[in-house]
Specification:
single chain; about 300 residues; alpha/beta; TIM Barrel; 2 domains; 7-stranded mixed β-sheet
Length: about 300
């Protein structure tokens, strides 16, 4: 059984707060138990994560195991939190950290159900058990969160320039082109600071790769979003380079999203890209030429 979101796919970060140190949580006994790291599993939040619409993307973090990072918050569109009274301070801290990234935060569980006035900073309070309120929360998140994510390609090739751009536009994605990178280390410096908010454009002109040759040998250094740019096909009627896209997709591995750039002509090309496992495409030329219509964009959004 799952909820249904009517207004698009969402990325939800579920964060279970660390337990406050106390006699009752038995944490001083953990070293005697051969691997136990927390008082009890986060069953309620796991249930909510499993109930979310099947096409929503979910990342789950138990802060008794590891803390949510900046990259986790940058990836997310909204944050779910749950806990008991003993975790009240930590729940409010997760809300504060999420708000620093302009994220909406929903809180459920026994503490807020008993004392909702403890949590004035949260954007959504889920009081009670799984049910109609859960469906309404999913519908509100599907409707209220912004549909558009702004990608900025401004020639940024240093960590300082990317940080400055994201300081002005904290929910944007900054495109870093291989053509302007001096070395792989520059990408590593950028990714270390803002991995969740950058996309790497692998730029090709004919068979030539434009950028540090070593970059193609280091897919481990690539961020989660990769643009495969065929410069010679931009504005042409050649169609996307499916062979190169497949090659880069194999290099990138299943955890990264691949985006096609150059040569996309019409809806049929978009269907072919989706069938090939490509996550999206740059389609400016097709839009300007009128070869992609509003109805086509609606279908593409559902591919």
């Amino acid at each position: 059984m799952r909820g249904i979101g009517q207004h698009g796919v969402r990325r939800i970060l579920c964060v279970f707060p660390r337990y406050t140190s106390s006699f009752g949580t038995f944490e001083h006994a953990y070293p005697l138990t051969g691997g136990v790291q927390a008082f009890m599993p986060p069953q309620g939040l796991l249930l909510i994560a499993a109930y979310l619409p099947a096409d929503w993307k979910v990342r789950f973090i138990d802060e008794n195991i590891r803390f949510a990072t900046d990259e986790d918050f940058e990836w997310a569109e909204a944050v779910f939190v749950s806990g008991m009274h003993i975790q009240r301070q930590q729940m409010n801290d997760i809300c504060r950290r999420a708000h620093a990234f302009n994220l909406s935060v929903a809180l459920g569980g026994p503490s807020v159900s008993a004392c909702p006035d403890y949590y004035p900073s949260f954007d959504y309070l889920h009081v009670g058990e799984l049910g109609d309120a859960t469906d309404e929360l999913i519908e509100r998140l599907a409707r209220d969160l912004p549909e558009v994510e702004l990608w900025i390609d401004h020639g940024a090739n240093r960590a300082e320039a990317v940080a400055a751009m994201l300081a002005r536009h904290p929910r944007a994605v900054v495109v870093v082109g291989s053509e302007t990178l001096g070395e792989v280390r520059a990408l590593a410096d950028i990714a270390r600071a803002r991995a969740g908010r950058i996309a790497l454009s692998l730029d090709f002109k004919g068979d030539a790769f434009l950028g540090p040759a070593a970059l193609l040998d280091r897919p481990d250094a690539w961020p989660s979003r990769i643009i495969v740019m065929t410069l010679a096909a931009v504005g042409s009627d050649a169609g996307p380079d499916l062979a190169r896209l497949a090659q880069m997709r194999n290099l990138a591995g299943p955890s990264r999203e691949i985006y096609a750039a150059g040569g996309v002509r019409h809806l049929a090309d978009c269907r072919a890209l989706a069938a090939a496992g490509v996550s999206g495409a740059l389609v400016a030329s097709a839009l300007h030429a009128g070869k992609l219509k509003a109805d086509d964009l609606g279908e593409i959004a559902g591919l």
